[in-house]
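Regression check, adenosine-5'-triphosphate case 594:
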Amino acid sequence: MDSSSEHWDPALTRLLASLKEVQSGGEDVAFLSELLQSKQLHALVQVHNKIVAKGKDDKFYPLLSNAMQVTLEVFELLHNVVSVSKEYGELLSLLQKPHFQAILCTHDAVAQKDYYPHLPDIPPELDDEEETVKIVQLVKSDEPLGGAQSAEPIVGATIKTDEETGKIVIARVMHGGAADRSGLIHVGDEVIEVNGISVENKTPADVLSILQSSEGTITFKLVPSFGKGGSRESKVRVRALFNYNSSEDPYIPCKEAGLDFKKGDVLHIVSQDDAYWWQARREGDRVMRAGLIPSRALQEGRIIHERQTDPQTLDGKPALCSVSVTNSDCAPKTPCSPTPTATALLPCKSTPKVKKVIYDITENDDFDREMIPTYEEVARLYPRPGMVRPIVLVGAPGVGRNELRRRLIATDPEKYVTPIPFTSRPQKSSEPNGKDYMFVSREKMEQDIADGKFIEHGEYKGNLYGTSAESVETIVNSGRVCVLSPHWQALKMLRTPRLRPYIVFIRPPTHERLVETRTAANARSTFDKECSRAFTEEEFSDIVRSSNRINFLYGYMFDEEIVNDDLPAALSQLLKAAWRVQSEPLWVPASWVQ
Ligand SMILES: Nc1ncnc2c1ncn2[C@@H]1O[C@H](COP(=O)(O)OP(=O)(O)OP(=O)(O)O)[C@@H](O)[C@H]1O
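Current build output:
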């Protein structure tokens, strides 16, 4: 080496030094030695080191790793609107420029850390005679490498004893961890030595103690497994429909490798290779290393087992399951609603004789129990100018959905609109058709209901009332924001790829705050036919109870929750949600965007 070799990468220098110790010499060693001293390799290593060093700096953390994919989605949107304005056309041609696309591809490669070396697969036929080994050096870090019984964070991989051979093998490589980033360690690789110490006849715990006592760089001698590794990240995103705390999970193979999440979190599933333990990252998290989460199959099995052994876990409150049809809350609000245009089907417990229930509550409940909330595959839906998703406010009867809907509309009546309900009741001479109601014959309405044209419907005093899907679509297509506050049982009919609703769950505050706020505001009970009195203590309890039940049955559908405690605060959160729906890409069921 010449004098400039002083500034050479220390790892290259060490490699060169150990190469000189190789006695056999020969052409291969001479070639390797020459390669290790070449200026080109040195320059490449320096670039690599710079990227790695910068990568560690939080300031340079990529906001997304799929810029090219986003660009393709933008293409799609622009294609539909290029004729609308010159600017759209200009943007489209800019995005199509090869140089621009090359920059984005490079950006994504760096964001996905695609610059780490990947060893080419070793051809299996070369292995027939002698065993091929690979030497891998990794810097000890705070990432997990553990066996089943112990899990000391070390290099981002877990090890186990192979049941058949009794040898120590790599059990799992955590996506984004040091082992994965090296591209050199794969699942199934057999560990022969760690830091020069043979692991033959050793347990995973023995290996861990070797690792724990080592400082700095760790050298593995491995027999590679074939046909594995090198797979690129999957693009699957799911919304978690349950809370997960790995420290409380007795079955997770490596607790430190677990990824905790809350119901509603969007997770990027980076590997589903293992039938029971997926690897995932929380979307938007800055930590690149993936963590272990229970697979869908595992979680489903757990929930079924839980339900079989403890039926109360169906909703935690068995008393709530027994909603009776005669005591149902399906009569229309119209007579006691402060706004005659309200389509909500409301509780009027005091009017049993007028009820004919169209929603079959019992049947719906049974159906919902079959839903096992694990993960829902989601994709981003980008806002489309002039086509805003309907905002749907659901919640327990009496919680304040209609009050919030009215207040939202009052902020901008030109923009926020609620559909005019249909009814089969006779039109009064003072009522123009299409003002408060759309009047239709009973036959026509029954036929339309049978054809699935209504998103909600009910019968009150022998007349049908309902909201048609078409009236919602008309508002959406007119560029305004459709706001609905339907009965909660309408949710399943509403949550379709056609309507793509943004569902906001209006939750009551604590019982105490519910009584305090409603009493202070002189709130009128919606359980009373005339809405002429205050809520009773029992009604307040009913609101809290049925809210818990709705959340249990339909929680997986909610995009957002608003606690209706202080009314102005709840409205302000609703306005922010409405703004997000109009302006931000949001996660929706993946089937809605295909
Ligand atoms: N945060 C709040 N603080 C005080 N009063 C409230 C609040 N939210 C709603 N109210 C009052 O509670 C009463 C019931 O509200 P609202 O009519 O909106 O209920 P709802 O959820 O639409 O019920 P239903 O589904 O039975 O019609 C109204 O008098 C309303 O003004």
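Comparison notes: DSSP finds 17 helices and 26 strands in the chain. The first helix runs from residue 10 to 21. No diff flagged against the previous build.
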